[in-house]
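Hi P.,

Sorry for the delay on this. The queue was packed all week, but I finally got your sequence through. Input first:
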Amino acid sequence: MSRIGRAPIPVPSGVKVELGAENTVTVTGPKGKLTHTFPQTITVTQEGDTLFVARADDSKTNKSLHGLSRTLLNNMAQGVSAGFSKSLEINGVGYRVAKVGDHLVFSVGYSHPVMVNAPAGISFTTESPTRLTVNGIDKQLVGQVAANIRAIRKPEPYKGKGIKYANEVIRRKAGKAGKVGGKKK
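Then the structure:
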């Protein structure tokens, strides 16, 4: 069996799990509500405050879906209780971000400011003009929005300018080397 798939999922306090028809699982907590429909070959059962995920057989597809389904369900339980966040940093002279209403305005070296609207379930916080955080209950959506923001101006390897994740390390390259010992004829 899958080591990840067979691990039990503890349900945090204050979180309610509803197992619906056609493998639909709804998780409700203090931060919100998430729903996901799992494949028919995956079964989710609840015993007290613990969830278990099982698969129908040992086919290759079911083995891969087993661990994935357990991880998705665990992320749902964690998201509605604590939430997820991704921090980003902006490096570069004159590069900054400002929060206007519920959307962000980036000045990152283009001739125009770039606006990013917050999708449903996502909120932005700006600690300073060069730091921002993407918050939400859906881990996949938080990661996708953070990746879309990073794609506005990816960090470049020569000066390190651009938008990067807070824990990301940019490998720097050496610039052009001048001619050494070149002789004219």
